[in-house]
UniProtKB/TrEMBL annotation, chain A:
Protein name: ABC transporter permease
Upper taxonomic lineage: Bacteria, Bacillati, Actinomycetota, Actinomycetes, Micrococcales
Ranges for domain ABC3 transporter permease C-terminal: 86-188
Transmembrane portions of the chain: 21-45, 65-89, 126-148, 160-184, 205-225, 231-255, 285-306, 326-348, 381-404, 416-433
GO cellular component, one term: plasma membrane
Record InterPro entries: ABC3_permease_C
Keyword entries, A-Z: Cell membrane, Membrane, Transmembrane, Transmembrane helix
Topology within the bilayer: Multi-pass membrane protein
Predominant location: membrane
């Protein structure tokens, strides 16, 4: 093994409490990602296996609809899942960059530096994958309680199989390593990569153009979907994925705009700092609140459910089951999306506190009030959070308009459900970010400010 | 520029009542005694270098004098008022209102441009953003940083960043400025430049200065120096000649 890469475990131990916390957060994120992905895939496999059974006599076959809906749920959850995995790989990036830049200064080659990072993140990914499989196994009996198609799933139906575990054990470390290596570009280019923090490059308005085009594509595809016949569902799912990716591209740009407005209006130190922090790294802010944005998008899309389920199905018991299942599936998707958003936000906030620990501690020594750090920490999450949640839900309502018309707002339950979910989701994410408060207090309590 | 609160305060050195005074300071960390009964006086407008090898207790002395750490025994008085028994919150307020700080590096907030880094302490004391920014601009210009107001800390050289830190420490008109190894991350020439600016500007602002350093050439910039070893002051000079 290469001498530098062989140092990985020693670096890990030498990092002390910060390194342990960062590693713990990363492993947790990979575990949650793995566990929930396996659960979602298990659900998809469950519906697919039921679709292959012979149709009971005298019943219509709507089982392919369930498979399509399960695929839609997978598409809706895949971006939040990937966001969480990406956030995990970037955890503690400032501390790691500083350490690796030092190694570069000491003569380590870019390849050795990348190798060290890959070793570290792949190891975290592997431990996370193992714990994720255990989480999936723990969730299995809970998922099996959910009633679909008139009956609950059996554990066997939701079982992803040993090959599913093998894919997770190989795939998660590989994805973690790739993501970690990708986040290292600065250090690989220059040993002084972390010594310089410059005015961030502006994100172009092209992102907004991409967003408008993406939303337009979805609206056009969904309005003419009927003409595609059997391919309509596939086209819609693909368009949904495009819309989702679009939201991910435009989110940081929109948050940058919010930061500019905030900066212009800032009159207090907390507002000034929160605005500058948002402007400085809108992509980082999106990583914290983006999960909720995507969940808000899901909530906006699902606001149509009360109107759909209000259709009279007294003459069609199978249709009634489908409507009930639509609500159950929608709720499960939303709950998972919000949980992912909360975990992403909590982990990203904790990582941010650790990455800024020296700066925060020195400000504290100079008499900066603790309340300022708390207020800035809260503002950097809350303002983008509200903007993103509401903005994403509205985007979803607009995007689904050609497909569903005014169904989302036709009955009062739709908007009420949407508002309820957004408020609940924001509260959940806020609570998750508050878990970093004790960490901030412990950083402030440290009067001995160490070099990184 | 010097029309700040500090500039209106009386200057002068070695007046009868010291501005900052410590008596019998003791500080322990577990079984280690970092300070074993230290007496120090600092007069108005005076600069004091605290020297000593690593682990001698000089940084702990600075932390106790500055109200960062409460001493286990002994007293610290500022303008005749005992400040060593204040609560944590009161000590934070004291540091914000009466003291300025210059650290080795890293005290500037990386996301703020230089002018906002300097303006921030004034804003924390209630000055409006516009007035604080205007005042910060004048401080930066007076320290030779005109035209660099919009630069981030990462876009400044080490010497420029320390000048910004000096402006940041002085903008609120502090009674005492504490500098912990302010030239530790700089080359010798830049370090001398920073020390010249730090001592001259602090004196002109009517503030006293405590510099912790292990470098005797840095200490030469101060009016007086004390040597700390094993938690005790073992040597002191009066009026170091330049």
């Amino acid at each position: 093994m290469n001498a530098v890469v062989a140092l990985a475990p020693r670096f890990q131990r030498a990092g002390g409490r910060d390194a342990r916390v960062t590693t713990g957060l990363a492993v947790t994120a990979f575990a949650v990602t793995t566990g929930l992905t396996l659960s979602v895939v298990g659900g998809l496999l469950g519906f697919a296996s039921r679709a292959e059974l012979p149709v009971p006599e005298g019943q219509g076959d709507d089982r392919s609809v369930y498979v399509i809906l399960a695929w839609i749920a997978v598409v809706l959850l895949v971006v939040p899942l990937m966001t969480l995995a990406g956030a995990a790989a970037r955890l503690g990036v400032a501390r790691r960059d500083a350490r690796l830049a030092t190694l570069r200064l000491l003569g380590a080659t870019p390849r050795e530096v990348v190798g060290l990072t890959i070793t570290e993140t792949a190891w975290q990914g592997l431990v996370g994958a193992v714990l994720g499989i255990l989480l999936y196994a723990a969730l299995l009996p809970v998922c099996a309680l959910l009633p679909f198609q008139g009956t609950t799933f059996s554990v066997a139906e939701l079982w992803v199989g040993w090959e599913g575990f093998a894919i997770a054990l190989v795939g998660v470390p590989v994805l973690a390593a790739l993501s970690g290596a990708f986040s290292l570009r600065r250090v690989s280019v220059s040993p002084l990569g972390v010594a310089r923090r410059e005015t961030p490059k502006k994100m172009t308005w092209l992102r907004a153009v991409v967003a408008v085009v993406g939303i337009g594509v979805f609206m056009v595809v969904s309005s003419v979907a009927g003409a595609f016949g059997a391919a309509a569902a596939a086209a819609l799912i693909a368009a949904l994925a495009v819309g989702f990716a679009t939201l991910n591209a435009v989110g940081p740009w929109a948050l940058g705009l919010v930061g500019k407005v905030q900066l212009r209006r800032a009159t207090t130190p907390a507002r000034l700092l929160a605005a500058r922090r948002l402007l400085d790294d809108p992509k980082g802010a999106w990583r914290v609140v983006g999960g909720l944005g995507l969940a808000g998008f899901v909530a906006g899309a699902l606001a149509v459910l009360p109107s759909i389920t209000a259709i009279d199905t007294s003459q069609d018991p199978q249709g009634a089951v489908l409507m009930d299942d639509l609500v159950t599936g929608g709720m499960v998707t939303l709950v998972v999306a919000f949980l992912l958003a909360a975990v992403s936000a909590g982990i990203a906030q904790a990582a941010s506190v650790l990455d800024r620990r020296r700066e925060i501690a020195l400000q504290n020594l100079a008499g900066t009030p603790v309340e300022l750090h708390d207020s800035v920490r809260r503002r950097t999450v809350l303002v983008p959070l509200l903007f993103v949640a509401v903005g994403s839900a509205l985007t979803a309502l607009v995007m689904f308009f050609p497909l569903l018309g005014l169904a989302a707002v036709a009955s009062p339950q739709g908007p009420l459900m949407l508002v309820g979910f957004l408020v609940g989701g924001c509260a959940l994410v806020y609570a998750a970010t508050e878990t970093s408060r004790p960490l901030l207090r412990s950083v402030l309590a440290d009067t001995v400010v160490r070099a990184d | 520029m010097w029309g700040t609160r500090a500039a209106r305060q009386p200057g002068g050195m070695n007046t009868a009542t010291p501005r900052l005074s410590a008596r019998g300071l003791v500080k322990r960390f577990g079984s280690t005694t970092a300070l074993a009964g230290v007496d120090v006086d600092l007069h108005n407008g005076e600069s004091l270098a605290v020297m000593g090898p690593s682990g001698s207790g000089k940084s702990t002395l600075l932390h106790c004098l500055a109200g960062i750490l409460p001493p286990d025994a002994g007293t610290v008085t500022l303008d005749g008022r005992e400040v060593s028994r204040l609560s944590d919150r009161e000590r934070s307020l004291l540091r914000r209102r009466r003291y300025g700080f210059v650290f080795q590096f890293g005290q500037l907030l990386s996301e703020l441009p230089a002018i906002e880094n300097v303006a921030l302490p004034a804003m924390l004391l209630g000055t409006s953003r516009r007035d604080a920014t205007e005042l910060a601009g004048r401080w930066l210009a007076s320290l030779g940083l005109a035209g660099m107001e919009g630069r981030r800390p990462g876009e400044l050289s080490g010497g420029q960043a320390q000048r910004v830190a000096v402006a940041r420490a002085l903008i609120t008109g502090p009674a005492v400025v504490f500098a912990d190894e302010p030239t530790g991350a700089l080359d010798q020439a830049t370090g001398h430049d920073v020390m010249r600016i730090l001592t001259e500007t602090t004196k002109a602002a009517g503030a006293s200065l405590v510099v912790v350093t292990h470098d005797s050439q840095v200490a030469d910039w101060c009016d007086r120096r004390i040597e700390v070893r094993d938690g005790l002051v073992v040597g002191a000079t009066a009026e170091v000649p330049r």
